[in-house]
Q: What sequence folds into this?
């Protein structure tokens, strides 16, 4: 017994495709992401009837008289069949309904807003709402007689309900997780045994798990050794004797439920992809229809097997059942039986060899049976599992919605919105709206001839192109006279991605070229892209091109970025990797308001690139700010100065609808720190964001957060952490505030230890100034911190730390940083003075010790000059006349040039 496949038929566009058989089996009805409903009289119907219900139709169900469909209006709509006239709305959701089931007089629907509604009868009324899932509902099934409903959602849980009372009877976890129905490939698809409802089956990995609905324990598991990928869906036959299951690679399995055995099914063709939906013919129980993720429709049906060696089919089934028993054993005295069976009974012999003598070479058989045995053994070998790689995403435009929509956003950014409209007649138009009307007035362009489906908008230009042609059209917004110019790419190149900035137009082509133009059409450099382009972004004179750097692995794709900086006629390119999290795809690419590159993945993680650090920093996880896992944020712009992310909330989908126009929301940036709910983590988050990004009043914010963290460390009895914080920030003003706070809190020991940091902090600040001045000339500088001299006078361990006395020069320098001079006098008066250490040897420790004393003398001289009120400008190494004096001052401030020849050491 084997099932044969029919040829595949194109039904709908790429995406989830659903189908069903009418109760009488006279029609196959399909729905898809193109918004059409098609009626097929059979699989060979060349002219199916088509009806458009909206932008997309997620799922359908048939009540016997009416057809129910879930449309883009977040409703379950009823239509007369086969006329397809509107017959009212049954249910309403806040997101599209993803699954529908009709059983008896009950209708159940699940939505991406995580809710399930059950309606009794044909009229809209008081439906029962089942809530408990935390993810979009992926699939459900209903058994009306036992009042049971089983549902699987994106939170990875299978729940069983009594839909009459709304009680949750059972919950199972461990299923695949997903945050949107659109990106799901493993639906699970629970299905009740239709006759008595005593069994519930669902798909998990490479097996079908069957539960007993009496005690909810696992009754048995069904497996097919011929499949090489995970099951995506399953469905019981109307009589409950068979179960069909589809995999993510287009394979199908038909199980005999009573014998718990997989029947033979024809292998799938190469163009068959992941199975999304299955349906049995209610009249002919030997026929199953299926759809895949590319919108193709196919059927499998029971073929007529020819009996081998004259053996009737009935006897063959009986022998298969006999040989399939677990209690069969091969004994030593069965040699004569084998000879008898061998006489005209080749099929039984093969079953015996597969069951008992799998590893024994055939001996004593005739030539025909030997050839048949070899062929059977080759066919019975397990198929090596194929390595399934992560799918590489194709090129996309940041801020755009999918191409197959009739009304879609070509781009939505911080400048404006470009919307494309396609009428059923084929006419098209493009509308351009600006957030600031002073930039330019709104535009309405015809799109009948060029069929533009790519766009980029900046304050200076609007760039339009099509992936099907090689023409680029640019409208210069700020130009006078002829504003529009166009250019055709050579050698039949097509545009994969484009971006417009205030200074440049960049186009990535199918030949892996990055072509640069000025806003008015002057051609600039043509660069080669090392891989297939994924997205383009730009800001002023900078362009970021993200491309595939290597082939994908099983869990992730490897992306890199090419950062192009243009200055006049010169150009500089930097290569930087794009750290994409495994299992995710790039969903947005752009720049902040101050020109820092950033990107976001499809799970809502936003990362920012800081050129000074040459590193990527995760700055926000938008999913943690969403109330439901089925919601997504469509990112529009990033603002470093205001520390916000402008995005559109998409309930139950990945992109916003064009009508009605959604409102922008502002999400605050938050680093993914540990224990973010604690006060300490919140202060650390604000401090780090002020240091990483270009925030308004960054220095003020850093000082405020640092002193709050210092106070929190003092109140937590962590003086070492408080001193470490002041030392790491290295700011003399913060040191002054910290000393004051420690004194007022009565922590004299901490204040004394902080006072000792003054020379070190001054040296660091002076070195930073020198480094900034020398960095302009390309000279590298190294910061040298003063080291404390080692003391060997005593080896007795100290029971308690004792603060050291400050020298007179240090106390004089600290007077400039403290409003309370008595603070240091009180600390010094309580301790005896110690003589200065003598340095007889010219060692490295002595050099650093003398450098520290020179710094102290320099600080003291500065203090005296300030006290005398002299307004003369202090000399620096850059304005000093004496070159030897310049070198001496560099040593005094703790800076040594990177070259070995210029290192100065006191001899």
A:
């Amino acid at each position: 017994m084997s099932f044969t496949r029919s040829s595949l038929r194109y039904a709908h566009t790429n995406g989830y495709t659903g189908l069903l058989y009418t109760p009488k089996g006279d029609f196959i009805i399909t729905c898809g992401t193109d918004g059409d409903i098609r009626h097929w009289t059979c699989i060979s119907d060349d002219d199916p009837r088509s009806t458009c219900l909206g932008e997309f139709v997620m799922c359908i169900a048939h009540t016997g008289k009416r057809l129910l469909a879930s449309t883009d209006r977040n409703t379950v709509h009823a239509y007369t069949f086969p006329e397809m006239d509107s017959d009212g709305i049954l249910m309403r959701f806040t997101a599209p309904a993803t699954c529908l089931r009709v059983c008896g007089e009950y209708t159940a629907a699940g939505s991406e807003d995580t809710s399930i509604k059950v309606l009794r009868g044909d009229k809209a009324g008081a439906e029962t709402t089942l809530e408990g899932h935390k993810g979009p509902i992926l699939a459900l099934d209903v058994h009306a007689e036992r009042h049971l409903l089983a549902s699987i959602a994106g939170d990875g849980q299978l729940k069983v309900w009594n839909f009459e009372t709304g009680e949750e009877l059972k919950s199972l976890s461990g299923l695949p997780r997903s945050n949107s129905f659109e990106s799901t490939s493993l639906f699970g698809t629970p299905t009740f045994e239709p006759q008595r409802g005593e069994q519930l089956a669902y798909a998990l990995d490479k097996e079908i798990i069957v539960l007993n609905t009496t005690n909810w324990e696992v009754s048995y598991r069904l497996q097919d050794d011929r499949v090489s990928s995970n099951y995506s869906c399953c469905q019981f036959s109307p009589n409950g004797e068979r179960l069909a299951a589809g995999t993510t690679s287009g394979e199908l399995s038909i199980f005999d439920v009573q014998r718990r055995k997989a029947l033979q099914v024809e292998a799938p063709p190469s163009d068959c992809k992941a199975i999304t939906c299955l349906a049995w013919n209610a009249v002919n129980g030997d026929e199953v229809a299926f759809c895949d993720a590319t919108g193709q429709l196919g059927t499998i049906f029971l073929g007529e097997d020819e009996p081998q060696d004259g053996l009737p089919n009935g006897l063959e089934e009986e022998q298969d059942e006999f040989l399939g028993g677990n209690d069969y054993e091969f004994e030593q005295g069965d040699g004569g039986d084998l000879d008898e069976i061998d006489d005209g009974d080749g099929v039984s012999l093969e079953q015996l060899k597969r069951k008992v003598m799998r590893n024994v070479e055939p001996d004593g058989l005739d030539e025909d049976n030997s050839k048949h045995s070899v062929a059977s053994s080759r066919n019975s070998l397990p198929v090596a599992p194929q390595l399934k790689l992560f799918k590489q995403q194709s090129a996309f435009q940041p801020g755009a919605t999918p191409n197959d929509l009739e009304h879609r956003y070509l781009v939505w950014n911080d400048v404006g919105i470009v919307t494309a409209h396609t009428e059923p007649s084929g006419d098209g138009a493009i509308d351009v709206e600006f957030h600031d009307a002073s930039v330019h007035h709104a535009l309405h362009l015809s799109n009948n001839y060029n069929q533009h489906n790519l766009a980029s908008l900046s304050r200076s230009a609007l760039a339009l192109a099509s992936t099907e042609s090689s023409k680029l059209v640019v409208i210069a917004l700020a130009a006078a006279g002829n504003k529009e110019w166009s250019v055709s790419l050579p050698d039949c190149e097509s545009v994969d991605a484009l971006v417009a900035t205030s200074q440049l137009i960049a186009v990535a082509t199918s030949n892996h070229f990055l072509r640069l133009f000025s806003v008015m059409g002057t051609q600039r450099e043509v660069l080669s892209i090392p891989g297939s382009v994924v997205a383009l972004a730009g800001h002023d004179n900078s362009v970021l091109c993200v491309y595939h750097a290597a082939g994908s692995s099983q869990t992730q794709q490897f992306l890199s970025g090419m950062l192009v900086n243009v200055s006049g006629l010169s150009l500089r390119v930097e290569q930087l990797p794009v750290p994409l999290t495994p299992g995710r795809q790039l969903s947005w690419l752009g720049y902040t308001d101050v020109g820092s590159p950033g990107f976001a993945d499809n799970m809502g993680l936003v990362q920012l690139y800081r050129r000074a650090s040459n590193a990527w920093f995760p700055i926000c996880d938008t999913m943690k700010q969403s109330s439901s896992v089925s919601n997504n944020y469509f990112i529009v712009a990033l603002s470093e100065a205001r520390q916000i992310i402008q995005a559109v909330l998409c309930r139950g989908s990945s992109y916003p609808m064009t009508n009605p126009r959604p409102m922008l929301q502002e999400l605050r940036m938050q680093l993914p720190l540990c224990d973010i709910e604690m006060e300490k983590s919140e202060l650390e988050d604000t401090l780090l964001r002020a240091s990483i990004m270009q925030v308004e009043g960054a220095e003020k914010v850093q000082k405020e957060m640092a002193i709050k963290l210092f106070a929190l460390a003092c109140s937590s009895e962590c003086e070492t952490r408080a001193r470490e914080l002041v030392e790491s920030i290295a700011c003399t003003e913060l040191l002054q505030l910290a000393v004051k706070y420690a004194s007022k809190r009565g922590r004299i020991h901490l204040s004394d230890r902080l006072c000792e940091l003054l020379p070190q902090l001054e040296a660091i600040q002076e070195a930073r100034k020198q480094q900034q001045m020398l960095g302009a000339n390309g000279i590298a500088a190294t910061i040298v911190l003063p080291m404390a001299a080692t003391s060997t006078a005593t080896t007795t361990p100290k029971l308690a730390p004792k603060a050291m006395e400050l020298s007179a020069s240090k106390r004089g320098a600290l007077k400039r940083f403290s409003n309370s001079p008595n603070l240091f006098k009180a600390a010094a008066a309580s301790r005896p003075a110690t003589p200065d250490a003598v340095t007889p040897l010219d060692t490295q420790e002595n050099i650093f010790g003398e450098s520290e004393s020179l710094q102290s003398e320099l600080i003291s001289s500065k203090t005296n000059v300030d006290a005398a009120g002299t307004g003369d400008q202090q000399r620096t190494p850059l304005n000093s006349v004496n070159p030897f004096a310049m070198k001496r001052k560099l040593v005094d401030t703790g800076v040594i040039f990177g070259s070995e020849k210029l290192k100065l050491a006191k001899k």
DSSP finds 14 helices and 54 strands in the chain.
